[in-house]
Design a protein that fits this description.
single chain, 212 residues, alpha/beta, Rossmann fold, 8-stranded mixed sheet, two-stranded parallel ribbon, 6 helices, 10 strands, globular
Amino acid sequence: MKLTVFGATGGIGQELVRQGLAAGHEVTAVVRDPARFTVTATGDRLDVVRSGLTDPQELRAAVTGRDAVLSALGARSRKDAGVATRLTRTVLGAMEAEGIRRLLVVSAGPVGPAPEHDGLLDRGMRGLVSALLKDVYADLREMEAELAGSGTDWTSVRPPRLQNKPLTGHYRTVIDGFPPSGRFIARADVAHAMLSLITDEGAVRRGVGVAY
């Protein structure tokens, strides 16, 4: 497949590029700061495009003819709240201008519904984290509202606390929900889940909780 990855300098974004190339896909990595992009590849299956992500017209060439677009765009800290919605609007504008439909984005577990039969500890932790990061989660909810109002075949992948650990390929996913007692997942496994969901028709225009 031909894929475009936004947010390709972050932990999940670089894993999307790395794993996408390893699976034999052609990958366009869109970055704001090329110095932070560390993925290397031989051959011509990787194209790195620099963009400030402010103009949908500028991004049209990066998404045209692609089978799917994957976005790891989001706030790195609370002070960046608002960036996910703003940058995702730009991506949506470029995709809709080029007629590209499949889009997968990274959101967060607390944005979706709580797990069924959640224990007291998990409910308490979820509430505490949601309070501490309320501006970030408000941004992600607004981003998901933008997706819902778009003409794309989107999927929002909602992980819990992220870890910098190796890929396992073993995790749980719940469409329109969240895995019970799912507290952690590696960034590499979030990327793996996103790539696996590209062709999952049951995940189109749905949120997917993912966790160990």
